Predict the 3D structure of the following.
Amino acid sequence: MTRNIRMPRIFTAGFRRRESRGHEAADTNASRQFMNKVLRIRGPGKRCLGTVFVLIVAGMLSGFPTYAQARTTPEEGDSGVAEASRDSADENKDAAAARAEEGEPASPDGADDDEADDTLSGSVDDSSGSIEVALEKKAYGWDFRGDMRAGYVSVDTDRRDGSDDSSSEWLGRFRIGGNYNIADKFVVGGRIASICSTNDCNPALEFDSTLPSTSTVDQGDITFDQLYVHSFRRERFDLAIGRLQTKFVARAGVFAKSLDRNDSHNFNVNWTDGLHGTLHLKKDSVVHVIFQNNAADGTSSVRRGPIDFADDDSRITYFLAWESLQRQGPFHQLGFDFTLMPRSLLKDGSRSGRIEDYMGFVARFATSWLEETSGPRLNVAGEVGYAPETPTRAAMGLPGNGDTDGLAWNLAASVMDIRPNHNIGINYGRTDAGWLLSPQYRENEELIEIRYLWRRGRRQALDIRARWRNELQQLDGTTRKQEELDFYVRLTLGFNL
């Protein structure tokens, strides 16, 4: 049931620019397509691209002398300061190892918010779900926190019908909530969230069980994106029940990307209704189990293509994962996920056709080099996913017979701390038409993304992004593949009350 309380309009609609341009014939070479597209950009898009380029060059020119210096490590005994530094690092590692052996997190509670930590991938709060945030609660009483995100977005699209389109807008998202520790190991939590843009911002209080669009609530809606109870550390087992944020991302530093589960990324507001249990193993690894409730008319997180929950047997989505964030050889993250959505795949694209279970397997990793130095370091992370049962080509609007392919993968490389707090990364992703789980990679598409990130701890971040998207296969009955180039400048501020 949805409660809808309309409030007076407090923002007027802003601007939205649309223009038609002559279309140039598409180049068959993907690299030339991308460069040709960039060179055709005008107005705000071109200025944003110029900003990205200037920041990347300035950061690299000023940062890499420090990189060269950082590779020179003092010999043992050269300096009392160096020896003390090594002793302190050894003590910290020993303490982290001891906590890991007891099934505790490697990082102690109360760590400095401004401390560099590549497991905090992406911008503020882009890699922490409800169950992780609740574990940070240390004392009885209320703990209030929130964040504000604002940005300018520009998109240029070459549409399938042969037309060209440009649009731009300002977007904002505000979230505030808190946790209340009512017992030694029992927490209740909640948070309200809303998004607005210069195109639409008609505030309304809502409590939906499903998303009104494919990825987020309607602009102007004010809703709970968290409302849960959390019992933790009962013999190393945590359990959160209610409306949750669940995130399983590749932790590469600049990016926080996922092939299967990442609630409320970017400016979106979405959630997981259900329960999330974790079992803490030795060496700081964790087993996750999620049961997500689905309504007959949809779900509360991003799902793509012919996924449908009208069948009574599709009410629960099952998710099982194992993840380790402790250093193991070259890796500082290893993870494996399994998603099962019973009776939810419309194999032929309609409810009158075949209905099958949809399954997805994901493996992810993250690694880094030069992390023992004080200068820049290189982080590389990636994911690969596979769906054994996929919709037919006809169901996805593709020519030909048979089923679509179900492979998806992405790879990201980030240079962290080119200068303190300044980072740059590049991401490539490719998803076949049969991969329907990712909130950040659309089906039947490849993308290249370049991003600059200034991030200071957990509370302040500035992102500047340029991203190119292109359909892998042309849809049946269309003039050409759809191609898209977008830019944004985005500021995120976190706060505690």
